[in-house]
Structure to design on (225 residues):
C-alpha cells in the first residue's frame, strides 16, 4: 500500500461540501423524504467506517510498498518531473522482510528490527491520515443530517459549503499538524536504515524540504476563506 496518506488527508479538505448535500430540488419538508435522506446518511456513515476499517487492516496485514516514498508539496513535484520513478518495487513485510521485485534481500536481525521500526512509524502516520479523512467525511455527513432544510437554502448562496469547510478544518487542523511533527522521526529512522542496508538507500527519499513542505501545505490548506 502506498504511504501518502497525509497528502490524501489534505486533499480531502478540498472536497466541496455540496457533494454531500443531495439533490436540492427534493421537498425537504416531506417527512418521508427527510427519513429517506436520513437513512441515506446512516448508510453513508456505515460505508465510510467499513471502508476505512478495511484500509487500517490492510496496513497491518499487507506488505508496505515504499516505492513512492513520503513526499509533500512542490519539492516532490519538481523531483518527480526531473527523475521519474523507475526503481524496482520495494516492500517491507509485516515480519520485517525487505523485498525488491518480490525477492527477499538478505538482512540480519538488527536490520530486521530497523525495518520493523520504520514500518511502524510509517503505518502510524498512515493510520492517523485515515483517521483525519474519516473525521472529515463524517463531519460533512453529520452537518447534512442535522440541517437538511438549511442546506437547501444555503446552497443557493454557497454559505453552507463555506461554513462546513470552516468547521471541518477547525476540527481536524491539530491532527494534521501533529502528522507533520512526526516526520522528523521518520526521516531519522529512514537515514539510519539507509546507512545500515544499502539496498534500502534508493528508497530513502524523504528529506528536510519535505518536512517544510508539509508544514506549508497545512498552512495553505487551512487558510480560512
Amino acid at each position: 500500500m502506498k504511504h501518502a496518506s497525509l497528502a490524501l488527508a489534505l486533499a480531502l479538505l478540498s472536497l466541496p461540501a455540496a457533494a454531500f448535500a443531495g439533490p436540492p430540488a427534493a421537498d425537504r419538508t416531506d417527512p418521508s423524504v427527510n427519513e429517506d435522506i436520513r437513512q441515506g446518511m446512516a448508510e453513508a456513515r456505515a460505508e465510510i467506517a467499513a471502508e476505512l476499517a478495511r484500509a487500517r487492516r490492510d496496513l497491518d496485514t499487507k506488505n508496505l510498498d515504499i516505492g513512492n516514498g513520503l513526499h509533500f508539496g512542490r519539492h516532490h513535484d519538481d523531483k518527480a518531473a526531473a527523475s521519474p520513478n523507475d526503481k524496482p518495487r520495494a516492500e517491507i513485510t509485516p515480519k520485517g522482510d525487505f523485498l525488491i521485485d518480490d525477492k527477499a534481500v538478505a538482512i540480519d536481525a538488527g536490520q530486521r528490527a530497523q525495518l520493523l521500526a520504520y514500518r511502524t512509524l510509517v503505518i502510524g502516520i498512515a493510520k492517523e491520515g485515515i483517521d483525519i479523512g474519516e473525521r472529515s467525511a463524517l463531519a460533512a455527513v453529520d452537518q447534512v443530517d442535522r440541517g437538511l432544510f438549511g442546506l437547501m437554502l444555503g446552497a443557493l448562496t454557497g454559505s453552507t459549503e463555506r461554513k462546513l469547510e470552516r468547521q471541518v478544518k477547525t476540527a481536524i487542523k491539530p491532527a494534521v499538524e501533529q502528522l507533520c511533527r512526526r516526520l522528523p522521526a521518520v526521516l531519522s529512522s529512514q537515514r539510519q536504515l539507509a546507512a545500515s542496508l544499502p539496498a534500502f538507500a534508493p528508497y530513502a527519499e524523504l528529506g528536510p524540504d519535505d518536512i517544510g513542505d508539509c508544514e506549508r501545505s497545512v498552512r495553505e490548506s487551512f487558510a480560512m476563506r
Remarks:
- Residues 5-9+39-220 form one domain.
